[in-house]
Specification:
4-stranded mixed β-sheet, alpha/beta, 10% strand
């Protein structure tokens, strides 16, 4: 499971297929908008696409629908947290994604973490949680 730290960079990764939306635990953004308020969405889309965000320069008008669709899916599933809505002003971090669990390479050197992960996998399997194969 992944924790995203940038709306613009994470949404782009999901839309481009680099990250599966089902593997997203939460995206913690520096934005403050509601994707269902058309004026707010349009301002965000135009700001990212034409306002100095090189990661979105190659986006087309057709991409807007897909970006909005993914944004609303994250919003509706409670996977988008916007600290600015609560008065916080987070700074931009260099990381785009953090892993919510340790990969095998880390678990090999930490027996307690490996045991906890193995137990989690058992419980997750009993509750039909989809596990990311990278960590199995």
């Amino acid at each position: 499971m992944k924790i995203g730290l940038s709306y613009s960079r994470c949404i782009k990764d999901i839309v481009n297929g680099a990250v599966d939306i089902r593997d997203v635990l939460v995206i913690i953004t520096r934005t403050d908008f509601d994707p269902y308020v058309e004026e707010q969405w349009k301002a965000l889309w135009m700001g990212y696409r034409f306002g100095g965000n090189p990661e979105w320069y190659e986006c087309s008008d057709q991409d807007e629908e897909r970006y909005l669709e993914v944004t609303k899916e994250l919003w509706d599933s409670g996977k988008m947290h916007q600290p600015r809505k609560f008065g916080a002003h987070p700074s931009r971090r260099p990381e785009i994604w953090l892993e919510a669990v340790l990969p095998n390479s880390e678990l090999e050197h930490n027996p307690a973490a490996k045991d906890a992960w193995d137990r989690f996998q058992t419980v997750a399997g009993l509750t039909n949680v989809r596990l990311n194969r990278e960590y199995q």
